[in-house]
């Protein structure tokens, strides 16, 4: 009998086709809507492999009802949607998709910095709405990136790729990380800073840390209060790393200048979310790794990891 793979979202056929001969492949056929929990639990119950999205909650309860499950491969570098401890205890292998998305996500982070600082979204929306009446001396004036000070919280692979881009804009780069990156400091001139120091000094504060118990809620009232009134805050990591109410208040009272957000604590973000009411917030629908090449490369990593595990081989990017 063929081993069974369940894919939790419709993926392009070219990504899935190589699995079809050897395995039984089932897939949630909608692209724009997550698989409902009851369907996911039912499918997982008979699956040997789950190919999951960052929007799926893969918890202990689900794993307990999936006796044959050998591997969970997540289409993301982040894996906070999966209970890693529960997977370890049950001997389920979990894999993710690092490296292939590093540069693409760094491009998006940089794009969002520019979009927020130079008010590009607002300017484009106004033009399309027929609001462009005349060139004006102070119309859409924003903040410069070049020669500004960039503070990166979470200097992993993506953080470093953002910092490398910043050098082309003559930016000074500060970073805060659990561990020092001595090699990058000497190679690129990035400077390590304590969190408070980074918040106080940076013109752009960019969050690129993974969501863990340590980073959950790490930026709240106290941290936003330390930032410059001209600072721009960017989050392309995970919404739960920040206290969204504290961010709203800091922006609403103009204690910081603007924010660019690719992520929210609850996604998709509710249309009545207070942050969406603010003119100094630029938002995107969690598209950090969304280039055609990168998404296909991420899918190839998932596919290969699933095949490896089901065939008794060691997969790449193993987390458990
Ligand atoms: C990831 O892969 O974790 C990113 O959030 C995708 O944009």
TrEMBL record:
InterPro entries: D-isomer_2-hydroxyacid_DH, D-isomer_2_OHA_DH_cat_dom, D-isomer_DH_CS, D-isomer_DH_CS1, D-isomer_DH_NAD-bd, NAD(P)-bd_dom_sf
Domain D-isomer specific 2-hydroxyacid dehydrogenase catalytic: 5-319
EC number, UniProt record: 1.1.1.-
Residue intervals of the D-isomer specific 2-hydroxyacid dehydrogenase NAD-binding domain: 110-288
Keyword annotations from UniProtKB, A to Z: Oxidoreductase
Pfam families for this protein: 2-Hacid_dh, 2-Hacid_dh_C
Keyword Oxidoreductase: yes
Keyword Oxidoreductase: yes
Signal sequence region: none
Entry's Gene Ontology molecular function annotations: oxidoreductase activity
Enzyme superclass (EC): oxidoreductase
PANTHER family noted in UniProt: 2-HYDROXYACID DEHYDROGENASE-RELATED (PTHR10996), GLYOXYLATE_HYDROXYPYRUVATE REDUCTASE B (PTHR10996:SF283)
Family: Belongs to the D-isomer specific 2-hydroxyacid dehydrogenase family.
Protein known as: D-glycerate dehydrogenase
């Amino acid at each position: 009998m063929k081993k069974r793979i369940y894919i939790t979202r419709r993926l392009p056929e070219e990504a899935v086709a190589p699995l079809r001969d050897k395995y039984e492949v089932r897939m949630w056929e909608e692209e724009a809507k997550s698989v409902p929990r009851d369907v996911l639990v039912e499918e997982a119950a008979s699956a040997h492999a789950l190919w999951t999205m960052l929007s799926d909650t893969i918890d202990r309860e689900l794993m307990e009802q999936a006796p044959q499950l050998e591997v969970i491969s997540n289409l993301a570098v982040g894996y906070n949607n999966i209970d890693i401890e529960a997977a370890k205890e049950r001997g389920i292998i979990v894999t993710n998709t690092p490296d292939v998305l590093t540069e693409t996500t760094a491009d998006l982070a940089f794009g969002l910095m520019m979009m927020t600082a130079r008010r590009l979204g607002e300017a484009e929306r106004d033009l399309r709405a027929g609001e462009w009446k005349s060139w004006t001396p102070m119309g859409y004036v924003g903040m410069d990136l070049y020669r500004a000070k960039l503070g990166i919280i979470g200097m992993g692979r993506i953080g470093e790729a953002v910092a490398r881009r910043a050098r082309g804009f003559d930016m000074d780069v500060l970073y805060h990380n659990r561990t020092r990156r001595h090699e990058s400091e000497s190679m690129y001139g990035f400077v390590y800073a304590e969190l408070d120091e980074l918040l106080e000094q940076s013109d752009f504060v960019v969050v690129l840390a993974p969501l863990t118990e340590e980073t959950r809620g790490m930026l709240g009232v106290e941290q936003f209060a330390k930032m410059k009134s001209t600072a721009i805050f960017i989050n392309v990591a995970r919404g739960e790393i920040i206290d969204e109410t504290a961010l709203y208040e800091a922006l609403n009272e103009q204690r910081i200048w603007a924010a660019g957000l690719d992520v929210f604590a609850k996604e998709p973000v509710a249309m009545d979310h207070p942050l969406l009411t603010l003119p100094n917030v630029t938002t995107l629908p969690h598209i950090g790794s969304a280039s055609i090449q990168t998404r296909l490369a991420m899918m190839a990593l998932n596919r290969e990891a699933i095949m490896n595990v089901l065939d008794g081989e060691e997969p790449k990017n193993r987390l458990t």
